[in-house]
Design goal:
CATH architecture of the largest domain: Orthogonal Bundle
Helix content: 40-55%
Number of helices: 16
Distance between the termini: 76 Å
Order of helices and strands: HHHHHHHHHHHHHEEEEHEEEHH
CATH superfamily of the largest domain: Hypothetical protein, domain 2
Structural class: alpha+beta
Length: about 375
């Protein structure tokens, strides 16, 4: 049975109020100042699962180094990852690089429709809709977490909105709502409202330009929807990175291109099994590369999270004893790196923190006594 369409008068008033609010209150960002398709694409990829305020400095630095599709396509992946370092979700950078090479090979111009954009690596329905509407003026919808929350409250949508049928309905609603004359501005306004006003726990209903159209507000229950989805349980684990010193240089290994931290360098890393000692795990981490070490002391301990895991990561200072580093398994390259050259290698944020702790600690002095 077909879902009923939205009331046309309500839709027109929503568009009017939202566009007027956005024109007066939108945040200034470098991609809005110049909605060139390439710039919009890079911004939208960076904004996936990352807040605007965090993205801006990374975006400006990235665009300064890679101002065009061709510049990005011509750059080595390792350099792209280095400029992405700290943003996390590095699969985005790898896909962006592959897509740039694909675009450059096909003439250098981004596709102008959502369907064609989705053929690019790393471009899903949301990113395609955002680029098509903002950069090319196509009346295509967008649905992300912010938009889902806004629509759920405006229309009192109950149930698990991550379910397939609910997602299909959300995209249908977003398609009906998008303003055909100003699709880019409307979609950005919808996302901006969710990001700055229609907040998850403490919505600013008094500042909302469409509260008079909002079913949740009219019911006096603005936080009752969307209803929470069932979350996957997180697991705790302990990882140890062996920070191995040999003749004034530290051992780094590069992870294979796919998977978590793909293409990034790190101090060799292993996961603790049961009650293993930290020293044993550090030895095992180095042994992956055919290197034997003498564990000396813990350098640093830090907490971070990936997908469904909460990780306690230890950096363990080790002295090299024997073996030539040979990349195997999770690693496809290895290098002995001088301390002042560590900044030249793209590291994940936790590994960069270990490198920073190393320079502050003066780890080389500690190992001279071994």
């Amino acid at each position: 049975m077909a879902q009923p369409s939205l009331d046309e008068v309500w839709v027109r008033e929503l568009r009017r109020a939202l566009l007027a609010w956005f024109a007066a209150h939108q945040r200034t960002t470098p991609w809005r100042n110049n909605p060139d398709p390439y710039r919009v694409w890079v911004a939208e990829v960076m904004l996936q699962q990352t807040q605007t305020a965090t993205v801006v400095p990374y975006y400006e630095r990235f665009l300064e180094r890679f101002p065009t599709v061709q510049a990005l396509a011509d750059a080595p992946l390792e350099e792209v990852l280095r400029y992405w370092e700290g943003l996390g979700y590095y699969a985005r950078a790898r896909s962006l690089h592959r897509a740039a090479q694909q675009i450059a090979h096909n003439g250098g111009q981004l596709p102008a429709t959502a369907d064609r954009l989705r053929e690019l690596p790393g471009v899903g329905a949301y990113t395609a809709g955002a680029i098509a509407s903002i950069a090319f003026g196509q009346p295509t919808p967008v649905v992300d977490g912010n938009v889902t929350r806004v629509l759920a409250r405006l229309l009192w949508l109950k149930g698990d909105l991550k379910a397939h049928a609910a997602q299909k309905r959300l995209w249908q609603l977003a398609q009906e709502l998008v303003d055909p004359q100003q699709p880019g501005a409307f979609n950005q306004a919808l996302m901006e409202l969710g990001s700055t006003v229609c907040l998850p726990k403490q919505p600013r209903c008094g500042a909302c330009p469409v509260s008079h159209l909002c079913a949740a507000y009219q019911r006096g229950q603005p936080t009752a929807v969307p209803e929470p989805s069932r979350r996957m349980a997180t697991q705790a684990r302990v990882d140890i990175s062996a920070i191995v010193l040999r003749e004034g240089r530290y051992l780094l290994a590069r992870r294979t291109p796919d998977g978590l931290w793909g293409g990034l360098w790190e101090f060799p890393r292993a996961t603790r099994d049961g009650r293993e000692s930290l020293e044993t795990v550090a030895e095992r981490a180095a042994a992956q590369l055919g290197v034997q070490v003498q564990p000396v002391q813990t350098l640093a301990s830090l907490q971070h999270a990936v997908t469904t895991a909460r990780i306690r990561l230890y950096g363990y200072l080790c002295a090299w004893r024997a073996g030539e580093a040979q990349p195997t398994g999770a690693y496809d390259a290895a290098a002995w790196v001088a301390p002042d050259a560590l900044t030249d290698y793209p590291l994940s944020a936790p590994q960069r923190r270990l490198a920073h702790a190393l320079t502050q600690h003066g780890g080389q002095m500690s190992l001279q006594q071994v």
